[in-house]
Design brief:
By secondary structure, the protein is mostly beta strands. It has 6 domains: about 5-100, Ubiquitin-like (UB roll) (Roll), CATH 3.10.20.310; about 100-175, Ubiquitin-like (UB roll), CATH 3.10.20.310; about 180-265, Ubiquitin-like (UB roll) (Roll); about 275-350, Ubiquitin-like (UB roll), CATH 3.10.20; about 355-425, Ubiquitin-like (UB roll) (Roll); about 435-760, Beta Barrel (Porin), CATH 2.40.160. It has 11 helices and 35 strands. The strands form 7 sheets. A 16-stranded antiparallel barrel has the order 18-19-20-21-22-23-24-25-26-27-28-30-31-32-33-35. It has a 4-stranded mixed β-sheet with strand order 1-3-4-2, with helices on one face. The radius of gyration is 37 Å and the shape is globular.
Length: about 775
């Protein structure tokens, strides 16, 4: 019996098979084909890959081709081909293989700037795949390219293969990130109309400075550099430079890769004004309606952003009638002699489109029903851009999601149908809030709460909170069902227990105790897209005891029951109920005490809160809040102290002790008021050097006061404060630090200059 080796091992497969090709007995037929060494791979698969068949003649070339085909399959590390003559004529071909190991897991070591999850997303090689040295080298290149793009040119990545049992391995990428490459200089060449200082204000790639080694400023990031090119281009083209030109920036690394020099080279071109304007094409609306949407006007300097906004407005207007794939093509006619550019916005509306299917993905916790009830679109309806946009805004306003994307893919083979795919990324909706303040008398003032805003993924809210100090202990539990009986009617139930020592003021001696227990029920309904109405009823039981000789005359031991029927109407256009950056909410409330209980009074208020984005990226946000309230007794019993307006501290006038403003008696105990006036202005800004970490600074000014029935409200009696603060969206929730500086402090004022809060905001 004779055996011929005509195979190879590993990467030398082709060369070895060719070397032994002359030893093959020509004309010998293959009778059987066997596979040795296969464990995970079906031997029949390898025979099929080889291309060899029974009955064919085995030649050196056919052997070489068979080995090459098996190796190319990617599952085999080493392969050899043997032949053996068998009795009766012909030969048996034996394929001896050594399988490549299976990647059991992929791990990373030494990476700080990029998470394991982010690095894995970059890789084409995955766990449970066959190990390949070539693919691992490609993976190293992919990871290195990402690090280079983020400014880590000194990064070193070494793949380590750690063997496991059963021909498995752990693939470990050991990363040495090194320091980020910093920008040494930034030069701009070709600018004449605008100097370097002006242009550099619009870009993010700034040269390193004194504080660069303590922050992320002055570091190179490829995406930021590409964005800077568009920012400079946009700066010029929004100021008339229609033929502005700018190429890719030149980047020069120092030999040690630690620093780089960046050069922007540009050609400003001439300033062009707008010439004639027209709207043509295929549309249904009156032309006058579309012309009113054009945001550019003859004679004014050309502006790329205004042209883009015009295209967007025209597209949305036509698409709102069902033409989802409307195309607006801006045709230009350039007059180089007079430096004007005329625009014709040519509209092609295409086919009218209907929604086929609405699909929701990414919501592992939140039920589909919670999202669908916010939609203003339905399956089989015609496409309407404004309803689609409003649906997205409503889903975003829920506050349950980090991102909300509405995609409208075409239906294959159908021109008049589209699907809507709602892709959401959920955020944590549970919150543990801990707050703390300090006053000279109460010392530590604390509050804590536990809240879940999306209970069991059904959109309900449950909150338990408490506030405590030397003179106060408050507990409150509330539950909200936003869609009662699957109807757009909300219900909020609330129970509370309040115990206060020295109720008149938390800064006076302990003259009497007060215990209040109560409950309320609120029902609300949407009257329109932004208009909301609610009715409520609450009842409370207040007991006053341990009345001392220094207690105010109006404080009498006993029990008072108060029932209040309320009605409110609000107009809410905020883009988010949790972290608004645009829009506002205006509310009118009317309350009547007398439906049950001992108290008789009417209380009404007007309140407005507005948010104004001050830049395109909504990093700078201005906000204004104001409230006016008035209460009038309808019986000789007056208004109980517990129902009077109180003011001071967060949510009203910061810098003053909670509930300390207004008229006081001889013991410096606040009497509460029947009229309240308060206004707050805030400017929320990114914190230099810390913006990337989620820090924002706030500047604020507060003014307010409460007045008695016999007092006439006047500006001279208002209390004012200004201050600053730091807000941080930390991993454990929003943190707030605020320092307030009361203005025009008067004798008897009780101050609270610093507040720390973890969790919610004041208003």
């Amino acid at each position: 019996m004779r055996m011929l080796l005509i195979g190879v091992f590993g990467a030398l497969a082709l060369g070895s098979s060719l070397a032994f090709a002359d030893d093959v007995v020509s004309g010998m037929e293959i009778q059987t084909i066997s596979v040795v060494g296969a464990k995970r791979i079906d031997p029949a698969t390898l025979v099929l890959q080889s291309g060899l068949e029974r009955g064919e003649q085995l030649t050196g070339q056919r052997a070489s081709d068979a080995l090459a085909a098996i190796y190319k399959g990617g599952f085999i590390e080493n392969v050899a081909l043997y032949s053996r003559l068998i009795e009766g004529g012909g030969m048996e071909v034996i394929l001896k293989v050594e399988e490549r190991p299976l990647i059991d897991s992929i791990a990373f070591e030494g990476n700080d700037e990029l998470t394991d999850k982010r690095l894995k997303e970059l890789l084409k090689i995955k766990e449970r795949q066959v190990y390949s040295r070539t693919k691992v080298e490609e993976a190293v290149a992919q990871l290195s390219a990402k690090y280079h793009g983020d400014g880590y040119f000194l990064v070193r990545i070494e793949p380590i293969v750690r063997p496991l049992s059963d021909n498995r391995v752990t693939l470990v990428f050991q990363v040495q990130e090194g320091e980020k490459t910093r920008i040494r200089t930034v030069d701009i060449i070709g600018n004449h109309r605008f100097d370097d200082v002006t242009l550099m204000r619009s870009v993010d790639s700034q040269p390193m400075g004194f504080l660069s080694f303590f922050s992320s400023s002055g570091v190179y990031e490829r995406q930021k550099l590409l964005n800077d090119v568009e920012k400079i281009r946009g700066y010029y083209m929004d100021r008339g430079h229609f033929d502005f030109e700018m190429g890719a920036p030149q980047v020069m690394l120092t030999p040690d890769l630690a620093y780089m020099d960046i050069t922007f080279e540009l050609t400003e071109g001439e300033i062009y004004n707008i010439g004639d304007i027209d709207v043509t094409g295929d549309y249904q609306q009156p032309k006058s309606e579309l012309m009113a949407l054009v945001g550019i006007h003859p004679g004014e300097p050309f502006s790329r952003s205004k042209v883009g906004q015009t295209i967007q407005s025209l597209t949305e207007a036509v698409a709102d009638l069902g033409y989802a794939y409307t195309n607006v093509n801006p045709l230009t006619q350039v007059d180089e002699e007079h430096h004007t550019v005329s625009f014709t916005f040519d509209i092609h509306k295409g086919e009218r489109v209907y929604y086929r299917r609405i699909e929701i993905i990414g919501n592992s916790k939140t039920s589909d029903a919670v999202i669908r009830r916010e939609l203003r679109i339905n399956e089989a309806e015609k496409f309407a851009f404004s309803k689609l946009r409003r649906s997205r805004e409503r889903v975003q306003r829920l506050g349950y999601f980090e991102t909300v994307d509405f995609n409208t893919p075409r239906v294959d083979g159908v021109l008049d149908q589209t699907d809507v795919v709602i892709d959401v990324a959920e955020r944590s909706t549970g919150q543990v809030s801990v707050g703390m303040g300090y006053s000279s008398v109460d010392k530590i003032i604390g509050q804590a709460s536990v809240q879940e805003n999306n209970l069991f993924g059904q959109g309900q809210s449950l909150k338990a909170s408490g506030q405590f100090s030397r003179s106060t202990m408050d507990y409150n539990i509330s539950f909200t069902e936003p869609y009662l009986f699957n109807q757009p009617t909300s219900m909020t139930a609330n129970v509370y227990n309040t115990r206060r020592l020295n109720v008149g003021s938390s800064v006076a001696i302990r003259d009497y105790d007060q215990l209040t227990r109560g409950a309320s029920l609120n029902l609300g309904k949407e009257l329109s897209e932004f208009l909301h109405e609610s009715v409520s009823y609450g009842i409370s039981n207040t007991s006053i005891s341990n009345v001392g000789s220094n207690a105010p005359l109006y404080v009498q031991a006993g029990t008072v029951v108060t029932g209040i029927l309320g009605h409110a109407i609000s107009w809410d256009t905020r883009n988010s109920t949790y972290f608004p950056t645009d829009g506002g909410v205006q509310t009118w409330r009317l309350e009547y005490a007398g439906l049950g209980g001992d108290s008789r009074f009417v209380r009404s208020s007007l309140e407005t809160t507005d948010f104004i984005p001050l830049d395109k990226d909504q990093d700078w946000i201005g906000s204004f809040h104001a409230r006016y309230g008035r209460a009038v007794a309808t019986s000789s019993g007056g208004i109980p102290y517990i129902e009077r307006y109180q003011m001071g501290g967060g949510g009203s006038v910061r810098g003053f002790q909670y509930y300390s403003l207004g008229a006081k008696d001889s013991n410096n105990i606040t009497l509460g008021g029947t009229v309240e006036v308060v206004a707050n202005v805030e400017l929320l800004t990114p914190v230099p050097l810390l913006a990337d970490a989620g820090f924002k600074g706030v500047l604020f000014a507060d003014v307010g006061q409460v007045f008695q029935e016999y007092e006439r409200p006047s500006p001279q009696k208002l209390r004012r404060s200004v201050g600053f603060g730091l807000r941080w969206m930390s991993p454990v929730g929003p943190l707030r630090f605020e320092w307030a500086f009361p203005q025009g402090v008067r004798s008897g004022d009780n101050l609270l200059t610093f507040e720390f809060n973890m969790g919610g905001m004041s208003f």
